[in-house]
Structure formats: structure tokens, C-alpha cells
Amino acid sequence: MNKTTDYYNRAAESYFQSTEGADFTEAYERFLKYVPEGGRIMDAGCGSGRDAAAFNRKGYRAEGIDASAELARLAKENFRIKVTVCNMANWRANHPYDGIWCCASLLHLAEPV
């Protein structure tokens, strides 16, 4: 584990509470123009699960990955989404996705992937 993952594991509850209700409707609309209706979306660095849940409510098939086991647990419990605990830099897709959503998560990568 690294400092960033440790931080998010410790602060998971407060991070979840402060981000789960944020309105990203405009950003979703810009992104979804490029994803076929009902398409598969990976929310990379899904945090609270807010965005994957929003995509699922719109009829897409979204799931998430996050390095924080605690945030993954909260996302699963509160939004009933599939979340895999995994660092983005180590993630390998086992099937194709129509879109990869990264909201405030790429900044945590040490090197380009």
C-alpha cells in the first residue's frame, strides 16, 4: 500500500460523505455522448461510487475500481455497484469497455500508464 491509499482508507467515511452527493450532470452528459446507449463503463478510481451509480441509473452498465478497500466497501454498500479493489496502474480489463471514466483520480498515478 502507499500513502494515498492509506489516507483514503482512513478517511473513507468522511470522503464518502463529502463527495457522494456532488452533481456532475454536465460532465456526465459530455462523456456519455461518446458511449453507446447501455454501454459498459469502467469508473477508474471510483471513490464513493457516485459516478458509476449515476451511469447505472441512466441505463449504462458501470462498475468501478479503487485502490482503497474502505471506499470500495462503502460504494458497494451504499450504491450496490460492482467494485474491484485494485490500483489503476495495475488494472487489466478482462472484457472491453465502451468508456473509461476517471474523475479526480488520474492525479494519483505516479507515472503515466
From TrEMBL:
Protein name in the entry: Uncharacterized protein
Cited InterPro entries: SAM-dependent_MTases_sf
Species, as recorded: Hornefia porci
